[in-house]
Amino acid sequence: MKRRCISIFVIVLVALLSSCGRNIPLEDLTISLILGVDLDDEMNLIISESSPVFNEDAKKNIETYQLKAATIRDSRKYFDALATGEVTAAKIQVLLIGKRVLEHEGWFSILDTVYRNPSFSINTKVIVVDGPVSEVIFYEPDDKPQMPLYLKEVIDKNYIRTRTVESNLQVLHRQMYEKGMTPTLPKIIKENDVKFVGVVLLEENGKYVDALSIQETSFLLILMDKQKQELTLSIPITTFTDEGGIFNKNMLSIDISKVKSKVTTNYKQGKFHFNYKISMTVNIIERIFPKDKVKEAELKKLIEKELLSRFEAIIEKIQENKIDPIGLGIYARAFQYEQYKKVEKQWGEALSESNIDISLDIDINGTGAIK
User: Fold this and answer.
1) How many CB atoms lie within 10 A of CB 171?
2) What is the number of alpha carbons within 13 Å of residue 310 lying toward its C-beta?
3) 61: left (phi over 0), alpha (psi -120 to 50) or beta
4) How many CB atoms lie within 10 A of CB 341?
């Protein structure tokens, strides 16, 4: 009897809650799928939004608006005045932020309403546009799906393939408030087409400092222990001179199938010391230079040397910019807490003076089906 009374109570409660909601026909809604934030040449905040059109009489299946506003929330009333239906942000898939915004400190406060509004999805992808956001949000290619779906698929695909960092509102919020690391975001540009080109590196306050190419990002993700699937890298073996002509004669492509990474943390002589031990299983899938040019044992050492130089280049860029996209500060806090707390507020400076050593050991698992 008690169970039956509880069931009746739940049914009545659900009915009451559902009756309090507003049933708005789909064609009377403007469902924003992309939100854009940018600055114009006069440093005015520019907010843009893109929404699908469900009206069968409409000639275009998407409507896009752009306007000046004091804040993101302030733009809502202006969009309501322009849009054909009532604007809702509950289904936004992508947040585009112009690089010009990131070049100023304090930009993160612009997103206050995004985190405060419970209907705004924290899984919304955050992407940096190197150039005007309007060039991306107003772009309507004939040979691609609608821009919200296209951008989301591009970022998801490259994340799975270890080419870009995880990027959504929840991750960005954590990185902005985590003192042991600095934020990273994927970057796109609009040239003849919209394309993903790498990631941007931000200071602890979110200000833009540098960028990494797609291949550099893959090395960063290995250092972050974020490899997802088998990773393909193409590298020139610089020990061999390119003989010129129209074909590169020193290129090598490898598939990295397994990566094991161990980081040890110490503090001595007034510095933090981080020691990476990285082991990889690789398959050679392309070798332009002749087989008799190098023996397999020597080739192993050459690959290790080339890969190690790229890891070290990433570390050098990190220390020069006094940032920590890897999250080495989290290791320092976990294993050298007392020393870390002394420099927590200047962690970027402390990391720039740290010793970061990398040792690399690869195992060549295969050289291809045909020798």
Assistant:
1) 18
2) 23
3) alpha
4) 11
Q: Give dist(CA 328, CA 206) in Å, integer.
A: 18
| CA 330 to each of CA 179, 265, 269: distance values in angstroms, whole numbers, following the listed order | 8, 10, 20
CA dist 45 and 69 (Å) reads 6
Question: Do strands 94-98 and 34-39 pair parallel, antiparallel, or not at all (unpaired)?
Answer: parallel
Which structural domains are found in the chain, ordered by start? 25-212 (no CATH), 230-371 (3.30.300.210)
**Nearest 5°: phi and psi at 98?**
-70, 140
pLDDT in tens, 108-123: 999 999 999 888 888 9
Highest mean pLDDT (candidates 83-97, 122-136, 216-230, 296-310): 122-136
E-strand stretches of the chain = 29-31, 34-39, 45-52, 62-68, 86-88, 94-98, 125-129, 184-190, 194-202, 208-212, 231-236, 251-268, 271-287, 355-366
Beta bridge mates, 190: 194
Give the tens place of pLDDT for each residue, 274-313.
999 999 999 988 888 766 667 777 888 989 999 999 999 9
Question: Distance between CA atoms of 317 and 199, rounded to whole angstroms?
Answer: 13
